[in-house]
Amino acid sequence: MAEINEKGHVSVIIGSIEKSYKKARLTGKLTSNDAYILEAIYKLLGACYTSLSQPNRRTLTTLYNRILTTSKNTCMPMILAQDIKVVKPEFIQAEFLDCNTYESNQSVYYWQEIGSSIVNADVLAKIAVPGFLNAKPSDTLPVFSAGKTITLIPSNIGRVCFAVTDTKSTSTFSILDSSNTNITSTFTKTFINIHTTLFVSISPYAYASILFKVNKLT
After folding, report:
1. DSSP percent split of the chain into helix, strand, coil, nearest 5
2. Type and span of the H or E element at 107
3. Cβ neighbour number for residue 108 with a 10 Å cutoff
4. How far does CA 207 lie from the centroid of its chain?
5. Integer distance in angstroms from the first to the last C-alpha of the chain?
6. d(C-alpha 106, C-alpha 86), whole Å
C-alpha cells in the first residue's frame, strides 16, 4: 500500500476505505480487518501526502480517527494541523497493530539537476509542481544516516539535491561525505511550506558514485 502513489489509484483506495468504515460502524467494534484499514490509511498518508488533495487528506485523517473511537486500546488519534502538516501521530500499544514499531514518516529524496546554470531557485520552482518529488528516488532517513551511495552519470554535470520530508523550519541536519567530513556548508538549505527541507549543492557534481550521509541533528 505504501508504494501506491498514483492519484487515480488514491481515489479508488479512499472510496474503498470509506465503504469498509461504514460497514464496520454497524457492529460498533474495531475488528482485525479494521486494523488493516488503519494501517492502509497510515501508509497511504505517509507515502503519498504531498500529492494528495486537501479533501483526500481530510477524508483519510477523519476516517482514521473515527475508526479508533470504537476501541479503547489502540493507536492514539491522528491530528492533521492546518491541513498541510505531514501526519506524525503518537502511539500507545495497539490491540491488533504494534504501533510502537512505526517510525517517523521522514524520507530523503535525492537526484541530480543536470546543467551547471541551474540554481536553488530553479529547483524550488520544480518542487512546486505536483508529483515532482514522488517521481524521484528516495530512501529512509536512517539509511541516509548510515550512508547512502548515489550513482551519478559521469557525463552529466549538475547540482546534487536532497529533500527531507516531515521536517520543521527549525530542523537542523548535517551532510557528510565518505570520509565523514562535514560538507553541509557546501549546500544551500531551504525550508519549504510542505514541511520539507531542501538541500541543493552550491557547486555542480560530476562524479560516478558518491557516498553521502544525511543526519538529523534537531
Report:
1. 35, 20, 40
2. strand 107-114
3. 24
4. 27
5. 30
6. 9
CB 134 within 8 A of CB 51: yes
- Find where cell 492533521 sits: 80
The x, y and z cell numbers of residue 110, run together, are: 535525492
Give ∠ CA 137-139-144 in degrees, rounded to 5. Answer: 125
Pairing of strands 196-201, 158-165: antiparallel
What string of pLDDT tens digits covers the 218 residues of the chain? 334 444 556 666 666 666 666 665 655 555 555 666 666 776 666 666 666 777 777 777 777 666 655 544 444 444 444 444 444 444 444 444 444 333 456 899 999 999 989 999 999 999 988 889 989 999 999 999 999 999 988 788 999 999 999 999 999 999 999 999 999 999 999 999 889 999 999 999 988 789 999 999 99
Gap between the Cα atoms of 14 and 18, Å rounded: 6
Residues 6+ apart with CB under 8 A from 3: 47
In 3-state terms, what secondary structure has residue 171? coil
Q: What's the pTM value of the predicted model, to 2 decimals?
A: 0.54
Separation of alpha carbons 58 and 126, rounded Å: 26
> What cell does 198 get?
531542501
Q: What single-letter amino acid sits at 138?
A: S
